[in-house]
Design brief:
CATH topology of one domain: Serine Threonine Protein Phosphatase 5, Tetratricopeptide repeat
CATH architecture of one domain: Alpha Horseshoe
Radius of gyration: 33 Å
Strand content: under 5%
Helix content: over 70%
Shape: elongated
Amino acid sequence: MSTHCSHKEILVDLQEKYDKVQKLLDEDSKRDSTSEPYRSKYAASAILTDMKSILVKLLEDSSSLKYKAMLGVVSLNLGLVSIDTEELSTGEEQLMNCIDSLNDDALKPEVILILITALNQLGILWSERGDPEKSREYLEKAEKLYEEFTNHASSCTAAVSFQDLFRTSNPEMPQPDAENMLEKLYTLTLYYLAQIYGNLNDHVKSAAYCHTTLKRQLESKDFDPVDWALNSATLSQYFMEKNGFSQARHHLAAASFILDQYESDLSLQEGDDEALEAKRERFKHRSADVARCWAKYGILLLSNSKERLMSEVNENESETSNTNIQELGVVEDLGFTSLELSSYEDQITDKYVLIYEDARKVFLNAQEWLTKAKQYYTLEGHASDCVQITQDLSQLYKYLAFFEEDEERQSRMHKRRIDHLESVLKELNPHYYLLVCRQLWYELGETYSDILDIKLQRLQTVDERPTPHALRKVNHLAEQSIANFNMFLESLRDASTNKMPTMFNEDVIRPALIAYFRIGRLYSKIVMPDKAAQLENLKQSLNAYKFLVDYCNHDKDARKHVSLEVAVCEDMVKLLPLKVQRLTLEVQQE
């Protein structure tokens, strides 16, 4: 009897100690000063070490599973505290002790939560150590453990929470949130696996785990709506890059659905306190991000539709643009069956577009989303993001122009691109936004060149002699294109020496060489009645072609970036000197 009493007293003592540890870790540690950031955690560790000694002694007299599980919780907490206090090796050792001591009883209700928590933590630890393969092993063990437990556990067998293990009164009554705790832990396992497979470049599995995580959060109603929407929209980007426009649209629709629900809830909250204002600001920010994801969907759908129409290989392919689910290695349909999303999905097609009318519908939707995004990402507050949105709008016009058959309307679409790009460029100081300005100069050079090509094509199809106005237009377009490409190239000069680099960086080598190639071609398109001016343009054209050839002769690796262009330039470098020589003689004879 006395032994029984002493055991009961010991268990009461352990419960009190455990409650104190939880308070130290959950509450007191948040109030620790910066001078002693781990004070509460060290105090908790001391109590846990004392508890460990008591439990080890208890287990000398009894092989009770309850005591073993309690010791497992203590080892788990010691491991977590060690990791939090940057004693990683000690933490790993404690977690491994916890797992090793409980492995034989892994599927017991008293043990399941402890083991999955420990395995998840080891997964995180090895991920942070830069070993995703080892991290994956632990997380997959946790995943398998959950599946085995839920498959074999009877309906009356519920997981036992950590608190229940230490509770002396009514220990047979499981805590109601223990099962919920198991589901939460498993969702975390899947979330971590999604990240790890991403690190291992197995993007198919990463996407599948991301979707399952989102679906479980939705079903359990345990999620932050703004985070959930952003994660769903981000996942859509993966699907659309794999031509899975149906899955991408579904995840974007789900993101918008959840955000709209959240906005309704937010509108019911009254007051102007800081916390509520922060919620509203966060909602606006992430709504703009989801709008940008929708716009990317539209841009990519038009881009891929264009490529598909230009590719002879895909002539007999069906019109559907849905990724084959089996290719993704996923059994389920990657849908959120609990949400009614048809009104969101019906806004935009998930099929490749074939004609202008269909392309225009995609364009208008994407344009509307970009306009919404720009309401948050203003030029004053978010210059870089605002420029990216403007560039996206430019790309939309570019792809729509491909589907437009009327050349005059094509030109007008490219002119809209120029208006948008130049309006934002004039507001930027190149000193602070050099990389952004560089991108804009290059795209403007391309766009002026695109309009020039349309004008030249029209002139070639007409038998009459070009009017002076038409020729002035051609020259203006060529000069504007050259000016922007030159601004791009000038921006590559070394700031300290003001000289062009002898070797371009890997990220600009192709654009830089293509700029020279374009400039060479553009100078040859300018029509001048004055032969001296013609000669000057011809020399400029030759200089640009020669630069590209000389650069590729100096840097053999550069040829792979511009293999087609360098072949043309080599021909021009042989031909143009003869033209320059002949024109020089004509100028001298005048």
